[in-house]
Amino acid sequence: MTEAPAASRPFRRGFLAMAPLWAGVVPFAIAFGVLARAAGYSALETQALSLFVFAGAAQVATVTLTAAGATATAIIITAILLNLRHVLYGLSLAGYISREHEPPRPLLAFLLTDEVYGLAVREYLQGRGSRRFLLGAGLSLYLSFNLGTLAGILLGSALPNPAGIGLDFIFPLTFLVLLVPLLRSPRDLAAAAASGALAVVLSHYAAPGTTILVSSITAALLSTFLRRRVPE
Amino acid sequence: VTVHWIVILVVAAATYLTRVSGLLIAGRRVPKAVDRFLAFIPVTVFASLVTPDAGVGTASMWPRLAGLLVAAGVSYRYRQLWPGLLAGMAVFEALRLV
Fold this sequence. Notes:
The complex is a heterodimer. By secondary structure, chain A is mainly α. Helices cover 72% and strands 0% of the residues of chain A. Chain A has helices at 8-17, 19-38, 43-53, 56-67, 72-83, 85-97, 105-110, 114-125, 131-156, 170-179, 186-202, 208-225. In chain A, α2 packs parallel to α9 (131-156). Chain A is globular. In chain A, 50% of the residues are buried. Chain B is an all-alpha fold. Chain B has helices at residues 2-25, 32-50, 61-78, 81-97. The chains are: A mainly alpha, B mainly alpha. Chains A and B meet through α2, α3, α4, α5 and α6 of A and α1, α2, α3 and α4 of B.
């Protein structure tokens, strides 16, 4: 039995560190595949979203808003808003990865999701992080997410209309389940409550994309500038 | 249908830009207020994607609210996507058919 080359070990460790998350990623990707098809995206378009965008929340928002009749501009702005947090992940990781040169940043950036950031930064904080670990974790997620999407596309034609059996409820549920672990302080809770309440009111008057845009920016601005009124 | 492809490609490019910009900026300082604003964005965006679909004022309001409540509780306890999704869907489907 031959020993793996030293350089490949962090890659493998990263790939396997993501394995427990496959259980969450694959069903999510399957659900996404089914729902994108239900929202009117073709099989090829659905797979292309997972291949090129590779951002679950933004993809779900994109197909949901398309189905709801939002304009392309509103969809794109919403996706940008949903992805703005990646700038912070990049800023946070940049200090760690600057001591290495391979693999190149533009490649690593493509794989920078919530989960990959979480695993990679933890590894760096434990003093054994590396770009190859990040690459391994990222490709592990990319592979499982795209295979899950493909499974959802294939299953989609066999399943009945998702809305008819209440499957459309998975949209708000998914975002709620993404939201809950982020609520770590009364401040976060206040920001979420403000945005949520505003969105309910606005949704009666504005398009879905506009609703998300206006309520989330307003609530985030209020939270930023009223921060002294609410305890951390 | 061509609109779909434009949306896909622009969303892909925008997503990549957000991912690559932070990594390439490296070391630059962001004003504190901007930092705080961005930190609230996931929370406020997710919240605004949930509540309009809670069915307030519609026939399916109670099954939806019950499903969301249970999903929130389960995901608070287990901190993972799937248990909350399953529990929320189960409660919603059960109450919907009553």
